[in-house]
Design goal:
Helix content: over 70%
Strand content: under 5%
Oligomer: single chain
Strand order of the largest sheet: 1-2
Structural class: mainly alpha
């Protein structure tokens, strides 16, 4: 009775604290909005949002500092289901969900829904197959479960390697998002912005571990959901007159489709697309005989300059010809590199991609490939969700198995709020850009366009291709990672809304980065150091080592981020494929099939992870550009869907090897019984960590 009372009191206190916190944050935003109207500069608004929110998270981290093992690793197992659901939502709502998902829907239309379907469906797998069973097992980490279930340090070691691999790839994506936001909204250089954001990550996770991360993530969820909903509601009122734009989603798509048809048939758009087609054709022709093409092109440029000088041509024409000659590639190798880029312009010669049309393609083969990639992304995101270590660890923090189940419900609810909104944001932002930015004058391009191009030219590039002074859609190159952050500026909303969205994106990236860095550090300090190297290490030493490793891993991740190995969505998708390939088969078979044994898990995890990594490294441009031999796509599946090969290989390998080798011991089979059935209590073999 007293325990129930204490949990109830703790829960009510938390609701009171976070209610005050939410009101305080809304008041803070209103005050900044007033300050903007009075005359506060945009840069100072960016600074206030950045440092106030990071300072808030750091304050929670400092107040939650702990050296107690149970508090540091699993928040004392006393996080109520409602708040654990909110923390899981923030942990889940990474830079990919907040920044990248609406951008993918913006660029890919119907095909982008694969990410929404996969990630949402994955939580159903978590609820059905893993969360309650892992909570009943107790302990601290996923390698803990693998080590106990299959026995031996080899399985635990592969689990550690797998957890570090998928978590590291994931955390690089979050740090990239942090750098993107801080550099844009404070004017700091990208690399500096990465380390400023990183300081906030480290203060939260290093001082208080899972305890600090949990209560920080609840605060971060509140900020990110307010930030995400605000511009959508605003745009909904602007274009539909309805403050709940989800209700007018179909009407907005209908209006967008009409604009797409108009742009497809617009003569100026067709003129620009033809220029791109001609440049692509010329590049392809030049690549057939590069030496001759290089010599002819250089001779033609030199002759034009000479002819203009001889004819005493106007200075403007002569200057343009001289610039063209100076910009001509210095040698044949540079020319070939240029032509290889130019031939890719054929993609920009195509008319606007219909937003609501599934699997658009010129022929049946292209449509089948698009359909297969859609299925591949849904598959990998679903099974990856059910195997991500930093998400599964969250269910170790609830007071009971029943609370773990309820926690999954709340996680789905809080995730639903954003995922139900992302398609509306994509459609409204696209409609706004098609009707306002397209057709405007280059002479009056908005300031945000130049500001974002300065952050990263790959994110935004608007060039007057046909020199008519008017912006055509085909002249705009926009990256998916830009859409959510730039939407308030594109729509002409007050800059304080842009700062709010940046704060939300920062909260999303920081919350996930906290959980991921903690997962990596715990795998090294708890599973490797304590479980395998020094089982007699004191609790203080274990926690200290974990904190030190957090700093080391964070710095390495920041360095890798500076190399820009890929966009946010690819990096996150790759992490899901890796997790699905390495963890899903041994976790699910470990719970539901007693016959799965140590050697099956060892070979299966290694095979699944190995196949996934092999496919990514042989097909993704970042690796092939670094010298890794390139190979053709299998069945046309993109590198992000590598889990389509890794997971089945891992699953089949575990089954086959387990059947060919000795069954697990009676003690291990008793562990499976203990984990699966609620009426069985722990025995001498397994004691649930209190």
């Amino acid at each position: 009775m007293s325990q129930t009372f204490s949990h109830s009191t703790f829960n009510s206190q938390l609701k009171k604290y976070y209610s005050f916190y939410t009101g305080g944050f809304i008041s803070f935003v209103i005050l900044l909005a007033i300050a903007e109207q009075i005359g506060m500069s945009r840069q100072w608004i960016g600074y206030w949002f950045l440092f106030a929110t990071i300072g808030l998270y750091a304050g929670i981290g400092i107040m939650s500092r702990t050296a107690e093992v149970s508090e540091y690793y699993v928040a004392g197992r006393r996080v109520p289901a409602f708040f654990n659901g909110m923390a899981t939502g923030a942990d889940w709502m990474s830079a990919a969900s907040f920044i990248g998902m609406a951008g993918t829907l913006f660029l890919g239309g119907f095909d982008g829904l694969a990410w929404v379907m996969g990630w949402t469906g994955g939580y159903c797998l978590v609820a059905l197959f893993l969360a309650p069973y892992l909570r009943k097992f107790g302990q601290f980490t996923i390698p803990d479960f693998l080590g106990e279930r299959y026995g031996g340090n080899i399985v635990r070691t592969i689990g550690i390697i797998s957890a570090i691999t998928c978590s590291f790839v994931y955390v690089v994506a979050q740090i990239y998002g942090v750098g993107l936001i801080t550099s844009r909204f404070t004017g700091l250089e990208f690399g500096v912005g990465v380390f400023v954001g990183l300081s906030g990550i480290l203060v939260c996770s290093m001082l208080g571990g899972m305890k600090a991360v949990t209560w920080t993530q609840v605060a971060q969820y509140i900020i990110l959901i307010i930030a995400y909903m605000t511009p959508v509601v605003w745009l909904g009122i602007k274009h539909t007159g309805i403050p709940v734009p989800q209700l007018a989603y179909g009407y907005t798509i209908q209006k967008l489709t009409e604009v797409e048809k108009k742009l497809t048939n617009d003569p100026k758009e067709q003129e620009v697309r033809k220029i791109f087609k001609d440049r692509s054709d010329a590049a392809n022709a030049a690549l057939k005989e590069p030496a001759k093409a290089y010599a002819d092109g250089k001779a033609a440029a030199e002759k034009r300059v000479a002819d203009l000088r001889a004819a005493n041509a106007p200075a403007e024409q002569l200057t343009a010809a001289e610039k063209a000659l100076a910009a001509y590639p210095k040698d044949e190798a540079a020319a070939k590199a240029l032509w290889n880029r130019e031939k890719g312009l054929v993609a920009r010669s195509a008319p606007p991609r219909p937003h609501a049309t599934p699997y658009p393609g010129k022929d049946e083969a292209a449509q089948n490939t698009a359909r297969l990639n859609f299925i591949g992304i849904v598959f990998c995101m679903m099974f990856g969700t059910a195997a991500l270590p930093h998400i599964l660890m969250r269910y170790y923090t609830t007071p009971s198995v029943q609370q773990a189940r309820v926690s999954v419900f709340w996680s789905l609810f809080f995730i639903f709020l954003l995922y139900f909104t992302a398609p509306c944001l994509a459609v409204l932002a696209k409609y706004d850009m098609y009707t306002n930015l397209v057709g405007s004058s280059f002479a009056s391009l908005p300031a945000w366009a130049a500001a974002w191009a300065k952050v990263d030219p790959g994110l935004l590039n608007i060039t007057d291709i046909n020199r008519d002074g008017i912006v055509q859609l085909a002249e705009i190159v926009i990256g998916g990672d830009l859409i959510v952050l730039a939407t308030p500026e594109i729509a002409g909303l007050p800059y304080v809304v842009s700062g709010l969205v940046a704060a939300g994106g920062l909260a999303a990236a920081l919350s996930t980065a906290d959980g991921l860095l903690l997962t990596i550090a715990n795998a090294l300090s708890h599973d490797l150091y304590y479980k395998m190297i020094d089982p007699h290490a004191s609790t203080a030493r274990r926690v200290t080592i974990s904190k030190a490793l957090l700093v080391v891993v964070a710095i390495i991740a920041a360095y890798v981020t500076s190399l820009k190995p890929g966009d946010i969505l690819f990096l996150v998708g790759a992490a899901f494929s890796l997790a699905a390939s390495a963890f899903f088969p041994p976790l699910v078979l470990g719970v539901f099939w007693k016959r799965a044994n140590k050697w099956g898990a060892i070979v299966g995890m290694a095979a699944g992870l190995g196949v996934c990594i092999y496919y990514m490294m042989r097909t993704y441009p970042f690796f092939t550009n670094m010298g890794v031999p390139k190979m053709d796509l299998w069945f046309g599946l993109s590198p992000v869907s590598a889990g389509m090969f890794g997971l089945p290989v891992g699953l089949l390998t575990i089954v086959i090897v387990s059947l060919l080798t000795s069954p697990p011991s009676k003690q291990v089979q008793d562990l499976v019984e203990h984990v699966r059935y609620p009426h069985l209590r722990g025995d001498a073999m397994v004691t649930e960590a209190k």
